[in-house]
Amino acid sequence: MIPLCALFLTALLPSCSSAYKMALFVPGIANSQVLFSSRVAETLTKAGHDVTMIMINSLEDFEIKVKIMKEVKIYAVNASFGLTKRIMEERHSKVIYKDLSIWDTRFRENLKQATDFLTMACRSE
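Above: the chain sequence. Below: its structure as tokens.
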């Protein structure tokens, strides 16, 4: 009876102690996004998973100010294409905090710039 019980417990052990390798893709546009992703990564790491944060830096001068625990692996991808934080802030200052309809051309232009930004970041080498 004891060998059968030991065999049963041994069979259950892998399902109770499994850990996974995980990758989190983190857009480097704002530190709030990095902070949220780092909290997710730290929680998963503390649960026993092997976590890698893939930081996709799209802005030329983006600086990560978030402390990430040393057990989380970090892989940086430079996807910048000439856009700086200052240029992005100037573009947003024209429409931010304005009550714009989706039919307003300024709203559509801002949305087009955002999608162009993502497309160019994906295509950069």
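The chain has one domain: 20-123.
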